[in-house]
Amino acid sequence: MSVPLIQKIRVGAYIVGKKLSGEKRYPLVLMLEPLFRCNLACPGCGKIDYPPEILNQRLSVDECLQAVDECGAPMVSIPGGEPLIHPEIGEIVSEIIARKKFVYLCTNALLLKKKLDLFTPSKYLTFSVHLDGLEEEHDHAVDQPGTFKRAVAAIKEARSRGFRVNVNATVFDGHPAERLAAFFDFATDELGVEAITVSPGYSYERAPDQQHFLNRAKTKELFRDIFARGAGKKWRFSQSSLFLDFLAGNQDFQCTPWGNPTRNVFGWQKPCYLIGEGYTGSFRALMEETDWDSYGTGRYEKCADCMVHCGYEPTAAEHSLSRPWAALMVKLRGIRTTGPMAPEIDLTKARPAQYMFDRHVQEKLREIRLAEEAASEVREKGRQPATNAA
């Protein structure tokens, strides 16, 4: 089963409870980013462009668990960077599972075989392995030959030891639909993973390669082509049918940025996992102080082409409960790949992009230096001989 039944029941009950209580904004998945450091440097990624002082920072076990408790979301995704680099990742995961949260540990799998002994198979734990297509496309996307073979070997080892494994595919411009369809066949039939998570890449402003991000029109056409090739096949996706229908241009969703709040070494990131335009010291402050209405496609330039699952899957999940017949019809009939698309959002009134990366980096560096100076003073005082009272 792509998603365990117990997970469907608990997440569904959580959403129903929030709606019955009248809570307008609530988290669905905590994006817990314990560090930025990675053992790859993918040209389409803007997550690792930090000075060494920041790349050396990481959230402690206590900070991670505080974020989980503070947020209260039923699911926790642990991206990065590469979370398996974190020396306490095993303890972090086991403690989150002890809280009965569903953990998706996102990894490029280069360290997975070596680290498997840190974990115990559980319905609460899924390894989400980053694979951007078949061997040629994946190795090109991560700019390192041999990574596909290593990831596939790690997936097979993890599955042989009873772990749940998904693959997480990011799609870029120029990736042929027939090759992506072949990749979905491979993941489903040969690897036998529980599910596939698929999403168009977000155009990170710090990514080295700015030429291969999809715009919304290209995204919809590509996914219609992919899904047309999958008609009658048993591809398993971890995402809702309405989100996949959205990728094919059949839904006019707006994003729900508070649905997947992010906690990282800077703090709680405003407004979402993809855009860092400020940080708060608490989850409550994030929810209360963020001007949510100023973000989203048609509202903000940086959101113009975004159709990424971390923003739109929470929207689709909410619609699946409020309009269950719509989700059921997509499930039964399949994703429509011909005919008119849902109206596109007007982008002409979006406010201009703001660029805050350098300011946030400098503020964090000052914070790190002050902490180091304070620690140095404590150590120095500890080395000073005690004086006798007169």
Q: What would you note in describing this structure?
A:
- It is a single chain.
- This protein is α/β, with parallel strands linked by helices and about 400 residues long.
- Helices cover about 40% and strands about 10% of the residues.
- The protein contains 14 helices and 9 strands.
- The protein has helices at about 5-20, 50-55, 60-70, 90-100, 110-115, 135-140, 145-160, 175-190, 215-230, 240-245, 285-290, 310-320, 325-335, 355-385; strands at about 30, 75-80, 100-105, 125-130, 165-170, 195-200, 260-265, 265-270, 275-280.
- A 9-stranded mixed beta sheet has the order 6-5-4-3-2-1-7-8-9.
- A hairpin with a 2-residue loop joins strand 7 and strand 8 (about 265-270).
Spell out the blueprint of helices and strands.
Blueprint: H1 5-20, E1 29-32, H2 52-55, H3 61-71, E2 75-78, H4 89-98, E3 102-107, H5 112-115, E4 125-130, H6 135-142, H7 147-160, E5 164-171, H8 177-191, E6 195-200, H9 216-229, H10 241-247, E7 262-264, E8 267-271, E9 276-280, H11 283-289, H12 309-322, H13 324-333, H14 357-383
Parallel strand pairs: 1-2, 1-7, 2-3, 3-4, 4-5, 5-6
Antiparallel strand pairs: 7-8, 8-9
